Amino acid sequence: MKEWRGLAFRFDNTPGSYLVGLHLRGAVLWIRSLRPA
Hints:
This protein is 73% helix and 0% strand. It is built from two helices and no strands. By secondary structure, it is an all-alpha fold. It has helices spanning 5-11, 15-34. The longest helix has 20 residues, at 15-34.
């Protein structure tokens, strides 16, 4: 999540954009977990 910190400070000025960012980060983590180990 550290790589997302700068993005969060720049774009999460409104609750809507914060929620979109949260969903995007969750989707990225979920997709990464689907890859075979």
